[in-house]
Amino acid sequence: MENQFFKNIEKKSGVNMNEIFELANSLQNANFKDEKTVRMIIKRVSKIANKPVSKEIEDKMVESITKDGNKLDMGQISKMMNKK
Known about the structure:
Layout: H1 2-13, H2 17-27, H3 35-49, H4 55-67, H5 74-82
Helix pairs in contact: 2-3, 3-4
């Protein structure tokens, strides 16, 4: 049942659920105050979502995330990614 649920999500979104789970696991202990780590995460999410992020948007996201590494505002990040 659970497996079919994830297969349906993969089919509709085109996103591999294994990649999502691997990303989620890597985020658990990530240092969001480290610029290099944050850039890697942004690039990985961009690749998984098949949504390119310009250098300008990446820089803004990195600045926003590293400024307060204890709090990751996914809503703000989503807004930044949707701007082109």
